[in-house]
Design goal:
Blueprint lengths: L2 H23 L19 H9 L2 E5 L22 H6 L4 H14 L3 H9 L4 E7 L26 H14 L3 E8 L23 H18 L5 E5 L10 H13 L10 E4 L4 H9 L5 E7 L5 H5 L2 H16 L8 E6 L5 H5 L4 H19 L2 E4 L13 H4 L24 H17 L5 H22 L7 H12 L8 H15 L1
Parallel strand pairs: 1-2, 1-8, 2-3, 3-4, 4-5, 5-6, 6-7, 7-8
Bound molecules: 2-acetamido-2-deoxy-beta-D-glucopyranose (NAG) (4 copies).
């Protein structure tokens, strides 16, 4: 045998294994039959506002609708690196759709959601691509990289709707996150493509289509009780047009319906918090900045010891995140327990160092933001650095309930409701002493609002998270009752009432 043949043989066997595997798993001749889209339950505006304003303890459901090879290698054909390669690499759209539909249907189970709820996780972030909409709204995929494989996604939207509805059964909020935009917003394989090209900002057709995708999401999801918001773009390149894009996209999304005017919209900070904090600061609407926090991706951090990174969290990261101009409209919607082997190599007890690092992250994010979301719930090769199910109870605490929460009736003594009524009696007495001083009046009004709001969230087993946004909207609602210039008094009163209610 010539050496060439010897080298070719393993490749041939690999190819054989691959084709056998593909045909084992699917039937190339089967038609892709459309699956019906379930309705959402009737919209409950009051409950939606609890879910949308509460403090979130979340996990990402990564690599479900946006496949990532390092997380879900078994659905990737050989040499595939992105979602587009999965859709086009299984020999036929029919075959790819069978593999992906099975993946969408089975990645997250009802047991998963039950488990999350039982440990206090109250929200999930679901990355999707524009391809997830190919079946629901075919023109959104026309003239895009996914056009030729659009048939693969005939039923993707119906599986997303089912997952949102399943989460609702467990009172879990859903943040729908546009992880892959037409043309790609970051050139990364997790935006769906393998050519590394960032085309969304420079190509006007991709830009416009991305806005259409976002408008579709706002229309469809605004009146879904457990949809807590839409994330406009995940980890976009810090392009000079990004600010402009966010302005256009948010204006377009807000204009689709009256409900969309108040829907929380999340923007990612392109890893430059200081640059995009003013975007949130200068608006009054419910816009939230999402910052992702990792410690393994820069050469510098991957060389630092785990305990130095823990110190850095307290001395550098915490003060940076605690940016008062954001009025608390900040989430850390991707973070993990991951450390490089080198960072751990400096530690005499690596396991303990990782636990301290991970718990410190959680404490810092809890202190400085309205919510966080761990990346990610599952990986095929589950390990405690990236995989929530492996980290819980080890590197992470076992439960995540608000620090102070009450059952409506906590058994002994006064029930929660009696407690709140007692507090209101105290406030009523204060009101009578109201001197007519507008500062005192605003403080009193803030205090009673804070007290009532805290009680409302506690009764739902939650805590108000977006405090600044909530207060701003209350002040607008009160109109002249909060005399201009006395807003800080209202806010002081509100915070005190909120704290007394907890
Ligand atoms: C994978 O890529 C390598 C290098 O481009 C190529 O030699 C090989 O044939 C590819 N394998 C398959 C199964 O496509
Ligand atoms: C990281 O450490 C390695 C090994 O000591 C060194 O070669 C490299 O320059 C360091 N990188 C940085 C960015 O400090
Ligand atoms: C940790 O921080 C100390 C103090 O800044 C520094 O001297 C040391 O080199 C750092 N070590 C590592 C491995 O990061
Ligand atoms: C969080 O904030 C509280 C109050 O400001 C502070 O006492 C606590 O040390 C902070 N936690 C961390 C991890 O810094």
């Amino acid at each position: 045998m010539k050496p060439g043949v010897l080298f070719a043989l393993p490749l041939l066997l690999l190819y054989h294994a691959y084709t056998t595997r593909a045909t084992d798993r699917c039937d190339d001749s089967a038609e892709i039959s459309p699956r019906s889209v379930s309705p959402f339950p009737p919209f409950d505006a009051n409950y939606a506002s609890i879910l949308r304003y509460r403090r979130s303890f979340g996990v990402n459901l990564g690599s479900v609708f946006v496949s990532e090879k390092w997380m879900s290698p078994s659905i990737f054909p050989p040499n595939a690196t992105s979602e587009l390669d999965v859709a086009s690499g299984w020999g036929s759209t029919s075959c790819a759709s069978q593999i992906l539909e099975n993946h969408w249907a089975t990645s997250i189970t009802e047991q998963d959601l039950y488990n999350l709820r039982s440990i206090g996780i109250n929200s999930v972030r679901i990355p999707i691509g524009y391809w997830t909409l190919c079946g629901a709204q075919p023109e959104l995929c026309e003239n895009t990289a996914f056009e030729s494989v659009a048939a693969v996604y005939t039923n993707a939207w119906s599986y997303l709707v089912d997952l949102i509805n399943l989460a609702a059964e467990y009172d879990i909020g859903v943040l729908v996150d546009l992880h892959g935009a037409p043309g790609s917003q970051n050139g990364q394989p997790h935006s769906g493509i393998s050519d590394r090209h960032t085309g969304m900002f420079s190509d006007s057709a991709s830009w416009d289509k991305t806005i259409d995708v976002l408008k579709f999401l706002a229309e469809q999801l605004c009146e879904v009780t457990n949809v807590v918001g839409i994330e406009v773009l995940n980890e976009p390149a810090n392009d000079k047009q990004l600010w402009n894009f966010y302005t256009q996209a948010i204006d377009a999304m807000r204009s689709v319906s009256s409900c969309a005017q108040t829907l929380p919209l999340y923007i990612h900070d392109a890893f430059d918090l200081q640059r995009y904090a003013p975007f949130v600061a200068q608006r009054n609407d419910f816009v939230v900045l999402d910052h992702h926090s990792y410690f393994v991706f820069t050469a510098e951090e991957s060389n630092e010891s785990a305990s130095n990174l823990t110190q850095k969290l307290l001395t550098v990261v915490q003060p940076t995140l605690a940016n008062p101009s954001l009025r608390g409209n900040l989430v850390i919607d991707e973070w993990s327990c991951a450390l490089t082997p080198r960072s751990l190599s400096y530690e005499s007890d690596p396991q303990a160092a990782r636990k301290t690092f991970c718990e410190t992250q959680q404490a810092v994010y809890q202190n400085t933001s309205a919510g966080w979301s761990f990346w990610s719930l599952h990986l095929e090769q589950c390990h405690a650095d990236w995989c929530f199910t492996a980290a819980v109870g080890r590197a992470l605490p076992a439960t995540f309930f608000p620090q102070k929460s009450y059952a409506l009736d906590n058994g002994g003594g006064r029930s929660r409701r009696d407690e709140v009524e007692h507090r209101f009696a105290v406030i009523a007495a204060r009101w009578k002493r109201d001197s007519g001083d507008p500062h005192q009046r605003s403080w009193n009004l803030g205090y009673s609002d804070g007290m009532e709001t805290g009680g409302r969230f506690a009764a739902a087993g939650s805590q108000l998270g977006f405090v600044g946004q909530f207060m701003l909207e209350q002040i607008q609602m009160h109109g002249q009752d909060v005399t201009p210039g006395t807003e800080p008094d209202y806010q002081d009163g509100f915070r005190e009432g909120l704290s007394d209610s907890q």
